[in-house]
Amino acid sequence: MANQSQYKSCTLCPRNCGVNRLEGELGFCRETADLRIATATIHFGEEPPVTVLGGSGTIFITGCNLRCAFCQNYQISQNGMGRTVDSDEFADICLRLQDEKAENINIVTGSHVIPSVVAGLERAKIRGLKIPVCWNSSAYETIEALEMLDGLVDIWLPDMKTLNPLISDSVFKAPDYPSVNKKAIRWMINHAPLKFETVADVTSGDIAAEKRFGGQTIEKMLSGVIVRHLVLPGRLEDTRLVLDWLKKHADVDDSGRARACISIMSQYTPVKFDETEMNRRKPALDCFQHRLMNENEFDAVQQMIADYDFSYLFYQELTEDTDWLPDFNNFQPFSNELSRTIWHWRQ
Ligand code: SF4
Questions:
Q1: Which of 58, 180, 217, 334 is an S-S bond match for 338, by CB 3.0 to 4.6 Å?
Q2: Which CATH class is domain 34-335?
């Protein structure tokens, strides 16, 4: 059961800071009890069953309980960019995304403000929100926190960043991340069986859709889990640990049915921090190689993917393009091709 009193002595996530966020005290996530949002966009960069034709209605929440040293969204996740909204304005944003034909509402990095998101989603549903809701997080979340979202969220998009406690300790100061993350993802898989709907064919004159899907059948996810893993350059042995676990616990069950989709991301893109920031982050970034993945590594990842033979897999092609990194100072933080902003914190 979610309510605002949970901010009073905050144990909403495994950090267990115990601070009174209602009185403005800050814990690891550095957010008070206010729900703050940086931007809401129609986004075309998610996995095909989430993006589908209309794009995913992403709501980027300010703050984060993990604070990865390499975060591409650090302006909002770590530097506090965003504006406070109440549950009515949160519902307004959801409904506006629905009106703009978003396929779903996609809440990005909300683990530290679950009671407020629950209040906003409940308000939005009362006011007519019908499209599926996605929970897009690092999955550094307790089962009690996930249970607050049960019944409100249809699709879970958890990261499995690493199962190596030395890396999780260095990069986001959470040596317990592997054990917490595995439990959270198992809970999600048990609560959201895969369910898709076949969407109308793309040869009906929508040129953008034809370009994206090449005339293939499009499946829209109605329920389920997509576990995402970003390969860290120089740490391919850690990727193997993750794929091992996913093969055993997230691929097919005893009856041969897929339990979850797996999404392997090869586009680690080094953020160009200024010198002071870079010096501060250096010890954490030195645990792997803060650069684009090279072709040899990409070939090795391709081979791993082939070896594991997941039944439902998405993966990214190798790219040297760094233009997609967002700047949340801009009304349009991503490229026009990737997203369309419908709400921005500066408005
Ligand atoms: S939500 Fe924030 S304040 Fe609460 S326990 Fe987690 S990091 Fe600490």
A1: 334
A2: alpha beta
